[in-house]
């Protein structure tokens, strides 16, 4: 029982995890497991020690709450950042893909335009030398003059 360590020392009392040390009257009492925090009628939080003697229960609760809050905030920030980056990278990839498709289409149109210009130039040369066949009768006999 924790009451056996009363009037001894805080270290001896807190060797048992189920004990709570109260500095107001130097007593070792069983930790009230039914309530999360020990009631002030049992011992005030600033004078209660649990786990270690060098930090009071009030400071321990505040420290645990701060650490838990920081972890929660950092996890939330990481999740939001990852979701934002993923969305941003997807939109960036979509933009790059769209830009590549536009460039590909421009190159294809330029290629068709150059092909048409070459055909016109070749037709002019064929016409100049009489090699161009009539479009009305493409199977006419070639006459050598």
From TrEMBL:
<dbReference type="GO" id="GO:0005634">
    <property type="term" value="C:nucleus"/>
</dbReference>
<keyword id="KW-1133">Transmembrane helix</keyword>
<keyword id="KW-0175">Coiled coil</keyword>
<feature type="coiled-coil region">
    <location>
        <begin position="86"/>
        <end position="122"/>
    </location>
</feature>
<protein>
    <submittedName>
        <fullName>PTTG protein</fullName>
    </submittedName>
</protein>
<feature type="transmembrane region" description="Helical">
    <location>
        <begin position="59"/>
        <end position="84"/>
    </location>
</feature>
<keyword id="KW-0812">Transmembrane</keyword>
<dbReference type="InterPro" id="IPR052304">
    <property type="entry name" value="PTTG1IP"/>
</dbReference>
<dbReference type="GO" id="GO:0006606">
    <property type="term" value="P:protein import into nucleus"/>
</dbReference>
<keyword id="KW-0472">Membrane</keyword>
<dbReference type="GO" id="GO:0005737">
    <property type="term" value="C:cytoplasm"/>
</dbReference>
């Amino acid at each position: 029982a924790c009451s056996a360590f009363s009037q001894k020392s805080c270290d001896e009392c807190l060797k048992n995890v189920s004990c709570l040390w109260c500095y107001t009257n130097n007593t070792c009492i069983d930790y009230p497991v039914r309530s999360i925090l020990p009631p002030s009628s049992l011992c005030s939080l600033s004078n209660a020690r649990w786990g270690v003697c060098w930090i009071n229960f009030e400071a321990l609760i505040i420290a645990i709450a701060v650490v838990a809050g920081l972890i929660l905030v950092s996890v939330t920030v990481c999740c939001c950042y990852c979701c934002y980056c993923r969305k941003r990278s997807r939109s960036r990839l979509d933009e790059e893909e769209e830009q590549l498709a536009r460039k590909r289409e421009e190159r294809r149109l330029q290629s068709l335009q150059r092909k048409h210009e070459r055909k016109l130039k070749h037709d002019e040369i064929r016409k100049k030398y009489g090699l161009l066949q009539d479009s009305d009768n493409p199977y006419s006999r070639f006459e050598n003059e």
